[in-house]
């Protein structure tokens, strides 16, 4: 049975605001996940689907990259190894609503461009390839073979230099491996990905300091840590099963320190619906200490913490620092210690918004802990000083030897379910030469060595006309990237845009001159090829690689898998005599995995090891053996200097974040339940004292105007219209609005040092009474 999506779009005037919820998850979470599943899939499909989520014989949750428990860690999976937002992610994909040819007949592209991403996504699954030919007002059906020919002809005309191949982090390892191989065989390293906007800063900081750009902990480390620091992260919404792990940390006697401008419900208290206390009681208090930091204050905080640890060591030598570790495994400690003891408290309090007393208390928590894990996500990575901030966290962890031992380490909590795997498989504009050489050797190619363009560079190249073809393997490039108005214009100016997608989104309605949408199978669906039914593999946030097998009938008989789309395009573009065995890859994914085993480091015997019930863990030298493959051969201390974000009088610092009812640009619904914001999305959360001081009123509708110093003395302004002011417990001077509604405010040139990640968490804005109400 197929169904249509709703006609109604968001009505912002229906906003309801109630108080923040006290406790995350609980029975309410179960009720919501069931209701959403029934709404999208109906009872039969719901009963069939949810039990397969995250089970060994089923599919990997397309929600986030949080790992499943492993037998090897003495852990078994529960009957329901998923969370409310995992269930929503599945319902969104396994929906029985579809978008067919009559939909595109009825809606011109201009008409669709008027709708929100919410409405577009709610229309259901794409069912057949469509094309917008130059000058046409509508998308029209096209058959697959013809679609590949059109794309191949255009790409040959445009050439590899002027093409970018974007990836979103849901692509499987097999699809990602084939895709980077296609791009490089065609002749370019232009492989921007969502990671450029996400954990790129973590990768940059960790590669330099510990030699591996990935996290160094296992689930068991978190659960057995003495202290877990959760900073710049809202796990109750974005990694909900992390709360079960944190509950176990507490149960095992560990403590939790939360550092966040917002008192996010999931950091405070958790009601686990899988145990009686969570169902009947008030749940488990999580954070032992909550530091309500100012936006962008983390580097200053960790500088102070490092200095305090040195002082504590001076006071009682031999009790705080791990001298053995520092001596044997690190580089640069002497310089670090020489500069590190002075603290300008006034400055630190100004930058962090925290009091000296609390910072000293936190330093004691660190000094007293035998094993500390620090976890973080977008609240740290999407800042101008993101890389120095994460490097400073590494400094503090190194002082106490908190890496490569049980219960300790560094844990960037990854976003998309396979974003880490995609990078392992070569989705990166600057893969090391050793990887490129291995590709050449495996396939008899000579792939280009010059680094390609990342996301921001791709946008810049679109603006100056040096990138005119965009191919997206998943994702929603138009809505996820900064500076929306300019970005949309840049996409419209392209000669060719191709989107491989499961559902409609903003990127489809800002088409290039020739534009195609290629509909694909999702994670939940059966993938049948000539060689029989296939499975794919993924890597989670803790480097565990395992299989995922879709079990549902595909949304339409006309869908191709991502591997098939890439392989067929490659054959059409590169010719049947191309040295890569594209046809065999498509017929049998074991053949892809055989090549992965020979090309990708750490993946020997890939086909055997991914068939183990829990898969396998990729090597991580710092975690496994305290070996640090950096330039110095040791873990590096670094020198990082915080500099204040300049916020002029009457201006505020805006962060853009996720509501509880969305997956990035996919809006599931309109209930940001934990924060008490319902039925609408254009809101700006402001401290009540600031509301009064700025002569605004709670509930008033304002425009958000961002101000960006363009470097030559001028101020660029960007406007996002019609946001309702909501009084909220955010620090003075710090405000929040949802992503992607806030993206028009983020200047393309506002990027993190070293990682080029858009600064989505610190935009200088002023609030103006609304010019018009949308
Ligand atoms: N349900 C659901 N799950 C998801 C996603 C989703 O959209 N929905 N997205 C996935 C993806 S791709 C990602 S990357 C992750 C994102 O996961 P998160 O990083 O948790 O996502 P955000 O909503 O961006 O939340 C950022 C948090 O950082 C805090 N913060 C902002 N600025 C600062 C700061 O300067 N310092 C500190 N200490 N904190 C700060 C904010 O208050 C907020 O709590 O989630 C993944 N999982
Ligand atoms: N202002 C601001 N901007 C941000 C952020 C922020 O916090 N603030 N966060 C950034 C972050 S962390 C990230 S990761 C990016 C996300 O950027 P993207 O990954 O580009 O965006 P998504 O919204 O995750 O992509 C959703 C689309 O993916 C498609 N899709 C879903 N499943 C599949 C699948 O299985 N296969 C294929 N081929 N397509 C599929 C659907 O068509 C859906 O519309 O956004 C970044 N942008
Ligand atoms: S925590 Fe993440 S991966 Fe796990 S079930 Fe929830 S959304 Fe899915
Ligand atoms: Mo992300």
Description:
It contains 31 helices and 34 strands. It is of the alpha/beta class and 774 residues long. Strands 6-5-18-17-16-7 form a 6-stranded mixed sheet. It has a 6-stranded mixed β-barrel with strand order 25-33-30-32-31-34. Strand 26 (662-663) and strand 27 (666-667) form a beta hairpin. Helix 6 crosses helix 26, helix 7 runs parallel beside helix 26 and helix 14 (298-315) runs parallel beside helix 20. The structure holds ligand MGD (2 copies), iron/sulfur cluster and molybdenum atom. Residues 63-64, 85, 198, 231-234, 237-239, 259-262, 264, 293, 295-296, 298, 377-379, 415-416, 655, 657-658, 662-664, 761 line the site of one ligand MGD. Keywords: 4Fe-4S, Iron, Iron-sulfur, Metal-binding, Molybdenum, Oxidoreductase. Residues 652-762 form the Molybdopterin dinucleotide-binding domain.
